[in-house]
Amino acid sequence: MNSLHIQQHKFPALNAPSATPRAQRCATVRVACAAQLEKRYKSPSSSTASTELQYLESYTTVVPDTLLLQNIEEIEAPKAATVSSAVLAGILRTPGALQEYKFGIENAINYDKCHSKSGDDRLACLLDKATVNIGTLFSKQVEGRVSTEVDPRLAYDTDAMIKVAQNLLAQYKEMDIAQDRVLLRIPGTWEGIQAAKQLEDQGVPTHIILVYSLVQAMAAAQAGVSVIQPNIGRLDDWYAKHPGVIRDPKGPREDTGFMSGVNPGVRMAERIYNFCKKYHPKTNVMVSGVRKPADALALCGVDYLVVGPKVLATLKDSQTLQGYNDGLTSLPQQDDYAAPRLSPELAAQEDFADFECETVTKQIFEEGLGLAGVALLKQGVQGLVDDIERMLPFFSSISVGQE
After folding, report:
1. Is Transmembrane given among the entry's keywords (predicted)?
2. Within-domain flag for 250
């Protein structure tokens, strides 16, 4: 009785009056059962393998590292954008970009609020307006936020950076770009981090760049910064030029130079991620300077990875066993792609000394930078200033023509 009841519930059509021949009805039932089974189960051998890029993107947001939003879509669609003096200069010297974006730069000369200024103030106003115009165009092309450079010539002046940041946001508002679509890009100096703290307290998201040491990230995370961007490539370059320097402060003292197996850039990024996720989960970590696929994979699980076209192409062309014959692998523990290398759960287990967990003061900041941090931060700020200096002749000629 129970068996008949179940059959009637599962296949009511078998008990209903019908003129359909019995063989045809049975065939229909077999097809229906097969369709239901197909929805529940898919043969492992019918699944295709994933690429290293697909594996990486299942845990991390990959951001293409390209000066302009061009010639990258065939590998990876841009998710966010950056606008800076270097980007503006790239537009002016790239024919294709010049045709698409030059109007945004030239249109800055018609900005009324710059007309009342003179000299360096007028040039700075023109530069800021051109930056916002290009940032506005970029915001139409990406779904994420546009990281917008705050004049790096002010990297050691907190109040001046805050004033410029507020002017940039006001100009974005005039262009109908919401504040939450913009990240203000600020150098990782002590003064820059203090400016970011005040802006974050006002609800303005900030993006700290030129990060080459854990203490910079600690100070930025404690300041409530939205995004911290350590550059692992430049740190690796510095250690390559200074082979006698200990690469891992937590490692054995004799483990230096070419005998060391420690990748200082990757190790720094791991520590920064773990610190942020353990103590300041609001802060996201965006790692840049990724020059090798192995480094990208070693940081799988980090919030964002800025990856160049060559590394992206290699990751896209490299197959893994993920998604292929899943469940039939005899030694799953040997699968290098089974889980991300970084996660909030693993970060919670990371051991940080008391020094690394206390509030970072200016003295602790300066002492904690280390040789590499001091040299690279100074070099990075100067590089950004040089980018602006290369742009000024263009705006200077425009300014003279308007007077």
Report:
1. no
2. yes
Lowest mean pLDDT among 6-15, 283-292, 342-351: 6-15
Q: What is the pTM of this model?
A: 0.81
Asked if residue 177 belongs to a domain, the reply is yes
**Dihedral sign for Cα atoms in the order 212, 215, 219, 220:** positive
**3-class SS letters over 66-97:** CCCCCCCCCCCCCCCEEECHHHHHHHHHCHHH
Domain range for 392 is 61-321+339-402
- Three-class DSSP category at 129: helix
Q: Please tell me the number of Cα atoms within 13 Å of 222 on its side-chain side.
A: 16
pLDDT tens string 99-126? 788 788 878 888 888 888 888 888 899 9
Please tell me what DSSP assigns to residue 231: B
CATH code for position 215: 3.20.20.70
pLDDT in tens, 264-312: 999 999 999 999 999 999 999 999 999 999 999 999 999 999 998 899 9
- What letters, b where the CB count within 10 A reaches 16 and e where it falls short, cover 310-345? ebbbbbeeeebbbebeeeeeeeeeeeebeebbbbee
CA neighbor of 264 nearest in space, from 305, 224, 215, 212: 212
Going by C-alpha positions, the residue among 231, 225, 220 that lies closest to residue 268 is 231
Query: Is 44 part of a structural domain of the chain?
Result: no
Residue 203 located in a structural domain: yes
